[in-house]
Specification:
Length: 290
């Protein structure tokens, strides 16, 4: 309990301080008071989108271990099983994953009363509501030496299943034009070939121009599936700008919703986010999916 009180004080202190990074001393104190904390545990502050001050400000960990299984709920309300099946169909080596960090953000598993966004390293990112996260293995030595879960921002990178394995295998999001280990040249759909684009907003990162919909049949039903990588991103060298669309997100302002960087190895994926919804046919595809 004293640890919680201490952490609460730390959070309140860091929120009211005008600028981060906070002194290293504070981080060290927190670590000493928390014997079970892992080296990569972030100092993350949770918020509701409600502008009113919230009395229940508390610590959340974006790498929080999901020890408890989901509570039972209506069978089609949580899409974990569909997402899991989709992730199996990707046929990726299990060694890429760290299932301790799986987490479901559907409305059953992550109720509406919980935080809408988090602050880490002084930077806001939105909760990926309605998405399911599969934890990814990261290079622990790199993560520790750069303290990425304390000092780096959290961002989202929309992608597609064809590119997924090359990115994860690469350990960081490649630059367009990079010659990958698989002998492929990494390409994106964007015209700018000199930067990698991310967003602190899940709603912006899932726009179709960067995050195409994959229509798949799972257990005899058609679904629209999208995938996004949840990443730790080096704050240095980020340019924040207007997105190509307005009013996409109610949390991140329009003028800094799209981030770009030309720094290599500055975006490390640590979670595979999957979103599924029942497919609705258009005139063009009704013959294929009925
Ligand atoms: Zn669930
Ligand atoms: Zn769920
Ligand atoms: Zn269809």
């Amino acid at each position: 309990m004293t640890v919680q009180i201490f952490l609460f004080c730390f959070i309140v202190t860091s929120v009211t301080m005008p600028s981060l990074p906070s002194p290293v001393v504070i981080h060290n104190l927190v670590e000493k008071k928390l014997p079970l904390v892992e080296h990569d545990k972030p100092k993350v502050v949770a918020h509701r989108a409600d502008p009113k001050p919230t009395p229940s400000l508390h610590l959340e960990k974006s790498r929080e271990i999901n020890a408890k299984p989901c509570k039972p709920h209506r069978p089609d309300s949580c899409s974990q099983n569909i997402c899991k099946q989709y992730s199996i169909n990707l046929k990726m080596n299990k060694a890429y994953f760290n299932f301790r960090y799986n987490k479901c953000f559907c409305s059953q598993c992550y109720p509406i009363t919980k935080a809408d966004y988090f602050t880490v390293a002084g930077s806001i990112y939105t909760v990926p509501r309605h998405w399911i996260r599969f934890g990814l293995q990261i290079d622990q030595t790199f993560a520790e030496s750069k303290q990425i879960f304390k000092q780096w921002y959290t961002t989202f990178y929309g992608t597609s299943k064809g590119k997924l394995e090359s990115i994860i295998n690469n350990r960081f999001v490649p630059m367009p034009g990079d010659h990958l280990l698989s002998n492929e040249i990494f390409t994106t759909r964007l015209s700018d070939k000199h930067h990698v684009y991310t967003s602190p907003s899940i709603k912006y990162a899932c726009l179709k121009h960067v995050c195409p919909v994959d229509i798949v049949n799972i257990h005899s039903e058609w679904y629209d599936v999208q995938i996004i990588l949840e990443c730790k991103q080096n704050p240095e060298g980020i340019v924040k700008q207007h997105g190509y669309r307005q009013n996409v997100c109610n949390i991140i302002p329009d003028n800094e919703i799209e981030w770009k960087t030309d720094r290599r190895a500055s975006i490390i994926p640590y979670g595979l986010l999957i979103h599924v919804q029942k497919h609705r046919c258009t005139k063009e595809c009704i013959n294929i999916h009925s």
